Amino acid sequence: VALKETVITSRQNPVVRKAAGLLDSSDKRRQEKMFLCEGARLCQDAALSGIKVEACFYTKSAKEKYSSYLEAVWKVAGAAYCVEEHVAKLLSSTKNSQGVFCLCNMPERKAGKKVSGVVLENLQDPGNLGTVLRTAEALGIEKVILLGSCCDPFSPKVLRASMGAVFRLSLEMEEDVEKLGNRLKGEGITLLAAVPDASAVPVTEIDFQKGLYSIWIGNEGNGLTRQAMDVCHKKVVIPMIGRAESFNASAAATILLWEMQRGCAK
Amino acid sequence: VALKETVITSRQNPVVRKAAGLLDSSDKRRQEKMFLCEGARLCQDAALSGIKVEACFYTKSAKEKYSSYLEAVWKVAGAAYCVEEHVAKLLSSTKNSQGVFCLCNMPERKAGKKVSGVVLENLQDPGNLGTVLRTAEALGIEKVILLGSCCDPFSPKVLRASMGAVFRLSLEMEEDVEKLGNRLKGEGITLLAAVPDASAVPVTEIDFQKGLYSIWIGNEGNGLTRQAMDVCHKKVVIPMIGRAESFNASAAATILLWEMQRGCAK
Fold it and tell me: Helix or strand or coil: residue B154?
């Protein structure tokens, strides 16, 4: 460790309290523009993805067990704290904690590139949001916009389910449907509302290689809001095969994102 | 209720004990060829899917709240038991139980049709298996074979995640790789091993409309066994776009199954 390591034995330590405070409160995360990241692999991912790491925390046993992961973290972290087990518990949101944590700055919102992408409206389930973000990254979709009241992408559950995709995607947040619609339309992007409606255009008939597209995907239970559907140019549907109405939200999103990128396959 | 209803007040009741015994033991389920199903919607689904329901159980409050679901169940159930809350707890595997349960016979294994289908090898995660089964059904894939040591499709978690697809799919189980390979080859089916290997044939290049295919999908962490790969005719891969190596197991399976059926889209 090139960093000077400080030992923390007290649960009252102000740095620990600051980090722990970010765990359960998306309001605090938003105010501070910081979040807490847990797990050896995820902390390594954050460091390697260019996330600004203000401090890392680890237990003594984690330092031995996960030193290969911690190396990348130590290179970029502003401070290193070895914490006692009872202190580590304050920072953990998992059942079987590895005892490795990073206090991170949220990545800067990059200026939106004019590329095809996806808009997720009111996604409520952290596991689902994380999975969709992971799939978007896996498929090379660069632009993901969270519309309305999605769950916080920097919550512990989303970070885990996304396998660090949150660190690398260019994530934007927008609360206003009209504003987003107008902005994307101004960039010459065609907006496609994904609906479970057999009369809509089959997504397989869109030529995603020609022009720029934004697929809008709605909430797990209720789909897109009326307002979001109205702002889009076209409605698209996953063609009905079998009992397609019974896809779960994550499978439907996977197929839509896949169709968007399918033509790019080499 | 056309059925005569019996009230059960004791946790020692033999029917309750039999049903509860099936909850945690796949061995018992296999011996008895029975399983326990929980939840108003899932029990209704079982009844409507032609599952033989030996008995249904419900609490007094569930009987009022879920009578519209229970109607289908009452029509087919061999017996109806109104159980007290403390008895219902013995039958439940969920945090917030609806208090509705069915003791069911496993569906008869239908004679394997000569159709395209999917083979799942050693799938360990109940949520993942359930999701894949749900997606297979949604896509109209009729033939699903569980190879090796998959988790039990009649476990409470798989039933839930599959949203009842387990009741309607023609599920087969086979432990022996060679035996299954030879049988399918004998039916003139081309066996495709799904691998994360860029040198394999892109799955988008297979014309699933011509001939019969069986896609073999492996375990979440380790993929297909060497033996399973060797028995297949060809290796196929999801074409590499973005960071495709980082799909989760369920997203990868969704894309493979979708590609298999994509040509059937109307």
Answer: coil
Q: With beta carbons under 8 A apart, name residues in chain B contacting A138.
A: 242-247, 251
A43-80 pLDDT tens trace: 999 999 999 999 999 999 999 999 999 999 999 999 99
SS3 B121: strand
Q: How many CA atoms lie within 13 A of A79 on its CB side?
A: 14
Report the residue of chain A nearest B128, measured CA to CA: A251
Per residue in A183-232, pLDDT (tens digit) is 999 999 999 999 988 899 999 999 999 999 999 999 988 899 999 999 99
* Contacting residues of B for A139, CB less than 8 Å apart: 241-242, 244
* CA distance to partner chain A, nearest, from residue B240 (Å): 6
Strand partners, A252: none
**Which of B138, B240, B266 lies nearest to residue A247, judging by beta carbons?**
B138
Provide the ipTM: 0.85
Distances (CA, A) of B102 to A107, A195, A228, B258: 50, 34, 41, 33
Predicted model pTM: 0.88
Facing residue for A241 by CB, picked from B239, B246, B261? B261
Of B134, B163, B241, the CB nearest to A261: B241
Residue B197 CB contacts under 8 Å (≥ 6 apart), including other chains: B235, B237
d(CA B9, CA B49): 30
pLDDT in tens, B107-164: 987 766 788 999 999 999 999 999 999 999 999 998 999 999 999 999 999 999 999 9
| Tokens 């993929």 sit on residue | B223
Residue B257 has pLDDT above 90, yes or no: yes
Which of A248, A259, A260 is best to mutate for the B interface (most B CBs within 10 A)?
A: A248
